[in-house]
Amino acid sequence: MPETPRLSAAATRRNLLFGAAALSSGAFLTACTSNEPKESTGGQAADAPVADDKPGKPVTIGFAGPQADHGWLNAINVNAKERAKKYKDVTLEITEGSNDTAAQIGQIDTLINKKVDVLVILPADGKAMTQAGLKAMRAGIPVVNLDRIFANPQAYRCWIGGDNFGMGLNAGHYIGEQLKDKKNAKVVELAGLDNLELTKQRTEGFDAALKNYPNIKKVARQAAEFTVESGQAKMAQLLQAQKNFDALWNHDDDQGVGALRAIEQAGRDDFFMVGGAGALSAMQAIESGDSVLKATVLYPPTMAASAIDLARALGQNKGIGGMAEFEIPSSITLYSAVVTKDNLKQYMSTGFK
Q1: CB under 8 Å, gap of 24 or more: what pairs does 104-113 form?
Q2: Domain extent at residue 152
Q3: In angstroms, how far is CA 259 from the centroid of its own chain?
Q4: 285 with 313, same domain?
Q5: Number of structural domains the chain divides into
Q6: Pair 13, 157 in one domain
Q7: One domain, residues 153 and 193
Q8: Residue 263 belongs to a domain with what CATH number?
Q9: Which of 108, 138, 227, 290 lies 20 to 30 A from 342 at CA?
Q10: Is there a single domain that holds both residue 82 and residue 149?
């Protein structure tokens, strides 16, 4: 009787990975944050409990993200680094970060060659970098795909990210509830880059919510570029064109800094503003109460800390505490909470600079 061929360790691990990915069911979970306000240094919930802080098998996690040229992206890096420090059994191999797809693929190749145990990847372009995720998975390295999703579910073991449609939906419902008793209410929208799918999803969610309020009409929409400068310029155009409206939804708190400058320069205070993402500057403005900004809808950068939790669990063959399943979910969508002055203390520690 011929001897049964033995699979290599990498091949065995690869089979387990793809099998687990096919069997695991998706889950939609909300982010948890501390109820105590803490000084924020980069959009992290400083006292959020780690998933399982009892030391276990040592795990080396490779982290590859884009260039931190935006407050939210910088907070992603900070969250990943700080979360890894909480675990004595985790070693973090973090790349320099790049918005160039070819450069980021090269960085991922380096991490694969170093034989890290798990990879956490926030791709500069999810569709263009799908092959990088597939390569890691085929090498027996499980991938936690962060936010910008790969085009093929076989390119990752677990995806965790924000809810762009939900972000617009919650912004729309908040505005709708504030204006539900006002006849012929008018709202305007300062969107992000229109060539990004996430911008379209945020607008779709916003429009879906407004359909529940027949007394409200969206009278203008202007796309900006997620920068302070574009926010100021595009908001100035909106204010010039729209002499009378009741509420503004701005997709991004970084460009919101510029939008608030334009509003102040125009001397306008006849409407209220809802921001997006959860920057510390936005939360501080809400707290002070001396501007039109009254709320911001979260797109939590704490997802990077959770991605480290998930990567560690994968490296140690663990599930998630509080869930009955033996495996981590294949998909986790975070909730876009609306932060106002009433619940600000709960979320202030997650505000990013």
Answers
A1: 104/64, 104/66, 104/129, 104/132, 105/129, 105/131, 105/132, 107/64, 108/62, 108/64, 108/132, 108/135, 108/136, 109/135, 111/62, 111/64, 111/136, 112/62, 112/136, 112/139, 112/141
A2: 9-162+301-320+327-335
A3: 22
A4: no
A5: 2
A6: yes
A7: no
A8: 3.40.50.2300
A9: 227
A10: yes
> How far apart (Å, rounded) are the C-alpha atoms in residues 96 and 104?
9
Assess if residue 112 is contained within a domain.
Answer: yes
Among residues 191, 200, 174, which one has the least CA distance to residue 297?
Answer: 174
Rounded CA separation 13/154 (Å): 14
| Number of other residues whose CB lies within 10 A of the CB of residue 58 | 13
Q: Which two tokens stand for residue 113?
A: 């060659």
3-state percent breakdown (helix, strand, coil) of the chain, nearest 5 = 40, 20, 40
Q: Say yes or no: 145 and 190 in one domain.
A: no
Q: Are 64 and 95 in contact (CB under 8 A)?
A: yes
The alpha helices in the chain, defined as continuous H runs, are 9-23, 71-85, 101-113, 130-138, 164-179, 197-210, 228-241, 253-266, 280-288, 303-315, 344-347
> Are residue 137 and residue 194 in the same domain, yes or no?
no
Residue 199's identity, in one-letter code, is T
Co-location of 309 and 293 in the same domain = no
Domain membership of residue 340 (yes or no) is: no
Residues 135 and 182 in one domain: no
pLDDT tens, per residue, the chain with 353 residues: 333 333 333 333 333 343 333 333 333 333 332 333 334 445 655 455 555 667 899 999 999 998 888 889 999 999 999 999 999 999 999 998 888 999 999 999 999 999 999 999 999 999 999 999 999 999 999 999 999 999 999 999 999 999 999 999 999 999 999 999 999 999 999 999 999 899 999 999 999 999 999 999 999 999 999 999 999 999 999 999 999 999 999 999 999 999 999 999 999 999 999 999 999 999 999 999 999 999 999 999 999 999 999 999 999 999 988 889 899 999 999 999 999 999 999 999 999 98
Question: Which residue do the tokens 């969610």 mark?
Answer: 205
Note whether residue 343 is domain-resident: no
Closest C-alpha among 48, 44, 50 to residue 88: 50
pTM: 0.83
